[in-house]
Amino acid sequence: MNNDEMLPMERVLTSLSFKEADRVPFFLLLTTQGAREFNVSVREYFSRPEMLAQAQIRMQQRYGHDCLYSFYYASLEMEAWGGESIFFDDAPPNAGKPVISELEEICSLEAPDVYESERLGDVLRSTELLKEAAGEDIPIIGVVISPFSLPSMQMGLGSYFDLIYEEPALFEELMVINEEFSVQWANAQIEAGATAICYFDPVSSTTIIPPELYRKTGFKVARRSISRINAPVATHMASGRCMPLIDDLAETGTVAICTSALEDLEEVKSASKGRMAVLGNLNGIEMRRWSTKDVEHNVRNAIEKAAEGGGYILSDNHGEIPSQVSRDVLMTLSESVKKWGNYPIRLA
Amino acid sequence: MVANKIIMDLYDGNNAFELIKEVITPALERIGSKWADGDIALSQEYMASRISEDIVDSILPPESSTRRDVPVIGLTTLGDEHMLGKRILSAFLKASGFKILDYGDMKAELVARNIKNDGVDVIIVSVLMLNLVSEVRELRSVFDREGIDTKILVGGAPFLFDHDLWKEVGADSMASDAMESFEQINSLMGIVQ
Question: Which of A84, A174, B87, B143 has the smallest number of Cβ neighbours within 10 A?
Fold first, then answer.
């Protein structure tokens, strides 16, 4: 490290302040990839908080990206609600049977206490270990599934659409319950050492619901929830589109938005300018088969479109790089950011 | 409901297919193309397909012998428990007057056995999870081993984010949305509309 090189925390904070750091910060949001570090199954990996923390530290040291990611997998939150996860060898677990099978059950639903859940406790333990290792040098990104998107696992997306469109009073009731849980969960992670919270809200994306419905639903939930989270929040649509919502998202209190690979990064950056930083938007699905040339091309392209003036963090578009993406690709990605992403940007 | 009233006002007891062809299918086509262009959201496509399915069921009951059963169409998620894409697709095709054989989330071997027994012409595989697209490759290998010539049509998020993935897993084609699957079925079967 030379004298002018920033630490990841300073680099990320500089970029979030819409200033140019020493280089473009980049987040490799690695989850199941950690199991490969220790040659264990995905199930075993996610049952060992110490191993997860070690894997995150090891991967950050190898690739030199600008965060540690304490996220396990989305359905872990469902385990706290009494649900279960279905494990795969080569992918993040899925939520099992819905915990709400009839809409009337919402009336008697109670949010679990975050501190009484053993599984959420594992995430908090990993977060504490990451904090011990990283101190103030590397940001630790915690994750909550938004109260608005949580029902896609609580009841299944089809039933959730039925609820939103046909039972608005019950929908509101469910949001009140979910908000208590999500805010408590976010703040518990911050207390354990998370620097910022990634608010996963794919149902709010225009891929899933129309903007006018978002304004009546997910937007209000986000604004209420984010205002109660005691750290900066970045909103992530998990590959969903966000461009038509930029003005609304900026009003939710989020400091950053992750855009889809299906959207124009330059357009999203320009629309967000000065209000929210932008993350994204490398295509993790295609990344499985990228050659060295492809990686360089895509990284350069993203930097060209969004890096100028700061306010940009390069990452994948889903919030999770598939386990099928090789170490070589990740290493090339890292080298490409370091090669092309130094400020002032000179790509010629 | 407005959509139901429009159809019922036009329905004379004998013109179900005419209404499907001239009113419902064109409406679904427009919805499908808006979804493909990112102009409408999944929730709208879901509600449109659900409403259309209900209307068509009322003028052309699911067990009606006049439902279109050529080509024979099967649907599966090949082990993926995310059913919404399959549900929308099933509703779209049923609303177009087709009979659909829904194999749920069966694994490749079992799907192949059912396809053989049912004489399926096109099997549509809807997958959300990237790791489960390899099940399509497994299905292709069972087909090759057993000499099954059923066409494999795939759809779902991984295929939208990687337009070459369908070839990689040995499918015959892919569809970006429910309406495109209708066009692809016709193309795979050499049916001219």
Answer: A84
